[in-house]
Design goal:
lyase activity, mainly beta, Chorismate--pyruvate lyase
Length: 57
């Protein structure tokens, strides 16, 4: 499964909107912040692999 790359587009309370960057798609994915690294902010790049999100760079 994966890896897939995302960028955090927005943070809305307990959820973050992610946009996939490794393919052409305008669709946003809503993810609970509890599943994401605690230090994320808008513009953070993430890698999703093996059911886990991690920071890129």
């Amino acid at each position: 499964m994966g890896p897939y790359e995302y960028i955090v587009v927005s943070i809305n309370g307990d959820y973050a909107e992610l946009k996939r960057t490794d393919e052409e798609s305008e669709e946003l994915k809503t993810v609970a912040r509890a599943l994401l690294p605690p230090e994320i902010e808008e513009g953070t790049r993430l890698r999703y692999e093996m059911l886990e999100y991690s920071l890129i760079g």
